[in-house]
Amino acid sequence: MAIVPLRPLGSPREQFLDEEEIRRHGAFLEEKRRLLEERRARVRAGWGEKYVQRVHAKGKLTAWERLELLRDPGSPVHPIGTFVNWGRRFEQAGRTLESPGAGVVCALTRVEERWVVVIANDNTVASGSWWPQTPEKIERAQEVGLRLRIPVVYLVDSSGLFLPEQSRSFPGRTGAGHIFQKNALLSAAGVPQIAGVFGDCIAGGGYMPIISDRVYMTEQAYMVIAGAALIKGAKSQHITSLDIGGPEIHVHRSACADERVPDDRACLEAIRAEVARTPSNGAAFRRGGVDPAEPRYPAAELDTLFPADHRHAYDIRQVLARLVDRSLFWEILPHRGREMVTGIGRVNGLYAGFVANVQGAVEDPEHRGRRKPGGILYREGIAKISAFSRACDSDGIPIVWLQDISGFDIGREAEEHGLLGYGSNLIYTNSTNRTPMFTVLLRKASGAGYYAMAGLPYEPVLQLATPISRLSVMEGRTLAIATYNTKLDDEFRIASEDPEERRAIEEGMKAVEARIEADMDPWVAASQRDTDEIVMPSEIRPWLECLIEASYQAAGVRRVKNPRIWSLHDLEVLGAPEA
Fold this sequence. Notes:
The two termini are 20 Å apart. Helices cover 37% and strands 18% of the residues. It is built from 21 helices and 22 strands. By secondary structure, the protein is an alpha/beta fold. Strands 1, 11, 12, 13, 17, 19, 20, 21 and 22 form a 9-stranded mixed beta sheet that branches. Strands 2-5-6-7-8-9-10 form a 7-stranded mixed beta sheet, with helices on both faces.
């Protein structure tokens, strides 16, 4: 029972794709990569070189430069919410402004061999102001730290709310004030919070670092409820912000900060030293002496496995083979619910559970000799992934949900099978799980299937999307047919013989389809925070290395069983086919 039967999975790419398919798929994804890299660069540039020079002229570093010095050399940086506010424009005094990344950099990276969440105001974008959706982006990063119980580091350099847009960032339930509640919840949970104050720290920006366990201020930093300009207007006092709330005040008099340091570099070194004092990474113990290993089949090949047409199938097991260590996998209940794959693999030496949709036709257990389309949740598959999800939660194993789903089965037989009940059971399971769960939208994420497979409304720790993901209730063509159903015959052809009416229906259906297709764009989802980050398929493996290790980093905050007593062994025995 103690043996975890990891078995070889997958095969060389050339055995299941011919050269032309590899070339065609690769060209399709390469175009997506170029667009992704171009847009990442535009966000990272903030408001441009002119504003970078302004920051340097003050003797300060940019947010990205600070992050570079903070991280361990060679450690990856995994941004969260890069494309929040992408494509949004804000009007101010006759100018049209953008807020790249909502004016804040949030990322996971490793500091002193520990994964940490970093939240850094982008001081090249309106002096690090908080725009609409900036608070929510900060809160999302704080939530990742809270759920994983890993340190949260604030690199504060913010002039507070971008006041022309204050009505969209100040008042609501997740508005700016909610950041400070997250500060308090992190503190109550014992999650280390460390803050460096590098410059402007006004109003809400002043509150954010105060609950942190350690607060460092550079010599040109200040924390104030109201800055010098407001004091001058309200009280007619001519005084600088440094005089009001600089390190002389807050380190030596108010005790709202702990230490003063000469400059940005010294502050970052001090923060690294603080992180080194936090509990060490527990992942090495949970590996049980097993070294991390790359997949046998390179993760880079994932950028050639997906067809350009989202209606065409691919082999999800070949995808899994390029995500797990040594391409070894323990598939659980393989003979039941064949539209789903459930199983265990190691990522960076640590166990993780995987749930994934099978594409193409699969066997229909209700009708022998018949097949049914994959990418849909049927009764057996729902029961299978519900049981697997509960077992992983019981055993403390983090779960990765790989979505490419068109939704639930529909029709009379589906209702007779009680899919509403089985689906509710799955939703209950994923809503109450305590083990970390991560969701990846590989391609389609449609309807209630998106919800049931731990979509963002069900609060996975993080949700990633690829540039080919499609998030919607239903496909554009399907919705167009549903909208004009009364005008169509049984073959979904326009029933009218009137040329004018036919033209109007055809144009209307095309308009509906085009609008839905535009709404399904992953950039739209990322801009409005309906997904956390857009990544290439080949980047999923490095992301999982980070997320799975971070899940095991904090020792003693969740139950992680040793493999001898996993509930998953019971599923293996009970699900084995009869001799």
